[in-house]
Amino acid sequence: MKPLAQLRKYSAELVDLHHALALMQWDQEVRMPRLAGEDRASQFATLSALVHRREVAPELGGLLAEVEAQKGNLSVEECALLRVMRRSYEQNTRLPEEFVAEFSRLTSQAQMRWLEAREQSDFTIFQPLLERLVALSRQQAEYLGYAVHPYDALLDLYEEGLTTAQVTRMFGELQAPLVAMVKKFAGRLTPLSFNEPFSLAGQEQFAEHLLVAMGFDFSRGCLARSAHPFTTTLGHHDRRITNRYAPESLDFIFGALHEGGHALYEQGIDERLAHTHLDDGVSLGIHESQSRFWENVVGRGNPFWQRFFPELQQAFPAQFSLLGLTEFVRGINAVTPGLIRVDADEVTYNLHVLIRFEIEKGLIEGSVQVADLPGIWREKYRDYLGVEVPSDAEGVLQDIHWSHGSFGYFPTYTIGNLAAAQIWEAYKQYDPGFQQTLADGNLSKVREWLVREIHGHGSVYLPEALLVRVTGAPLSAQPFLAYLEEKFSTLIG
């Protein structure tokens, strides 16, 4: 067998193993009995160690070297596969097997402890495991290596090449304009409130309806419930979504649109990339651009609801029969500084991410201690958003990411927001009649463009190269700020 064919076979094996780990993760967050937590932690540790052995085996290093010697004869996609697998190999060979097993075991335990702490709104329940996770994440940064700041090594895991300095500059461009917009637009639109609860069955049915309209293929995916919505891949034809539901919240709509955006990205990857390291979104920033594109740019716009608001009224007459379309669209875009990141409006959302970035940077460099987090969280929310945090559940415990050990993940949300605005500008140039397209509910036209321009390529192109291909420019804050200014100035009339 030729070296390239052997490398493809090796890639398929590693992909299968990671999908098995993802299935265990999905089960833990969706269906696993609470008391099975320790068993699952042991299973994660064992399987993660076995997978790691295959990821760092000399056999793989030799194959990579053989294929690299033939690089001049490789196609663009073959070069991309080599690039992605070489990067993964280099990262994994820096991490000892014992570290990988312990990290996997601890994150499995931490997720169950985080859930308990959140339910009881008591940070001290989660604190000991978080302290260990922070210590392991610092160790991970040292193993991986970095040029300037230890947080750089963790950022790079989620967005290749991203540095602390770059994230600092990004937020430096955003912070003052966003604070000014909060002052300009906050309180000008009235948030929606509901006296009648939404039925659980009705919420799930409408969420499924929106997913189908977007183009989510239920023969290649499913929708389940979890404490924190997420999307995962268990195979090329197995892309799964979870959502959460509350009696008086529109989470069921915007959670479905958000996770649906992630899932459409995965379902849109070309079949020829299946069972390889390229059968994945190229980065979390680009991935997040797709979820925020559908959730906010499309899903909070008037044209989209011209098509779907009558159906929402029909599904929930007690809540919406007396509400007009304009009032509804203004309500779902109300700028209201609040406590919860996932419920935040587009103007304040990135300030939530900024808070997490500053805290994570402090934790990894050692200037912030885990025990002080509830107080630091309250102080930053008071300073940045002008709100008082009444409880740990609505404060430091609201996000699941730290229980996953995902330090360096949060800045990709803001990258996604910026990229989504640039991608939207590119789509509008392609489809000058975009308002009518959305008002007609012709979401397939939007999805097919995204598949052609972004989704189908999987991880073939690096994030910035892909963004330049689609939009003609590298990532910038200006299109996003212009998008917000135009949108909210129009909404307040």
From TrEMBL:
UniProt keyword annotations, A-Z: Carboxypeptidase, Hydrolase, Metal-binding, Metalloprotease, Protease, Zinc
Top EC class, one word: hydrolase
Enzyme Commission number(s): 3.4.17.19
Active site: E259 (proton donor/acceptor)
Cofactor: Zn(2+)
Keyword Zinc belongs to the record: yes
Pfam families according to UniProt: Peptidase_M32 (PF02074)
GO MF annotation terms: metal ion binding; metallocarboxypeptidase activity
UniProt-listed CDD domains: M32_Taq
Cofactor binding comment, as recorded: Binds 1 zinc ion per subunit.
Gene Ontology biological-process annotations: proteolysis
UniProt binding sites for Zn(2+): H258, H262, E288
Reaction(s) this enzyme catalyzes, per UniProt: Release of a C-terminal amino acid with broad specificity, except for -Pro
Cited function: Broad specificity carboxypetidase that releases amino acids sequentially from the C-terminus, including neutral, aromatic, polar and basic residues.
Family in the record: Belongs to the peptidase M32 family.
Protein name: Metal-dependent carboxypeptidase
